[in-house]
Amino acid sequence: MPIDQKRAEDFAGQLVTTFNHGALCLMISVGHRTGLFDVMSRMDSGTSEDIAAYAGLNERYVREWLGAMTTARVVEVDPATLRYSLPPEHAASLTRASGTGNIAGFAQYMAIMGDVEDEIVECFRKGGGVPYERFPRIHEVLAEDITVVSALETHVLPLVPGLAERLSKGLRMLDAGCGRGRILNRLAVLYPASRFVGIDLSHEAVAHARSEASRAGARNVEFEAADLSHFDRTSEVEGFDFVATFDAIHDQGRPLEVLQGIHRALKPDGVYLMQDIGGSSHVHQDIDHPLGTFLYTISCMHCMTVSLAQGGEGLGAMWGEEKTRDYLRKAGFRSVTTHRLAHDVLNNWYVVTK
Questions:
Q1: Segment (H or E) for 203
Q2: pLDDT of 191-243, one tens digit each?
Q3: Nearest of 154, 141, 139 to residue 198 by alpha carbon
Q4: 115-353: CATH architecture
Q5: Span 5-97: which CATH code?
């Protein structure tokens, strides 16, 4: 068939841009992990030797990294002096000091997903999945996302009317799929009159959560390493006033059973707060999603595959609001209200009651 030559050329150009951006993700990840962005934000400018010395890194590697950052127009260079600088407008998105504005940490997902590419390709051929233990850094990277922790008091807790007051007076809360427990440990410190329980499949994550709780002096929180696949039968009946999950349900081997377990665990007047990826259950409605390609990729190479590795259904991160509401209904919940937070382009926040 004849082709539109202009369309073919435009697409080839799009691919070249994609290759450069893919490489840039890896270099942003390196800059984040080595602290180079943080160092450069504290310097007016510097040579590769200056920057390497300040960061305590090897100059030859720093120089090549600066080449990638300069050609990507992330870093600027004075050709006369070969002094490099990080514009403050760029530092606002790349440094730890910027708080919730720091999105450099998300670039780490590219390297993490690339590390399992061979196994994912094999899954394409034979089915099955790649288990959690093949993602040794995933909980560390997830714990770096401070968008929830930093917004707990200002945005998240107010989604449930009266919740902060109830926490202050004392209630019992469960975080199902708690990861390294950063959110739960923060709440335990903020609300000493309440009791908190965190459950996660990863023994490594739970050990880290316990260690963090000990360092924070939080004696009102406990963590358990457990598989939630049979939570519909094992959850404590009406044992919790408040249950939360933070981007955890779609990873589960048996998500419906987890939701049924949460329903069973809630007291009659309890509230379930569910954070999950905001998208549609219909792919054509996700075409204009600002992070659609990123989210489907993370889903294919992590969220979906870890579920399939447990013999689960592999919902994937982009299961969408329509399916989410359907699962909540099947789990027995009657009231579901969807919220979106201005600072959070990734997620929907569902306030759910019996």
A1: helix 203-216
A2: 999 999 999 999 999 999 999 999 999 999 999 999 999 999 999 999 999 99
A3: 139
A4: 3-Layer(aba) Sandwich (3.40)
A5: 1.10.10.10
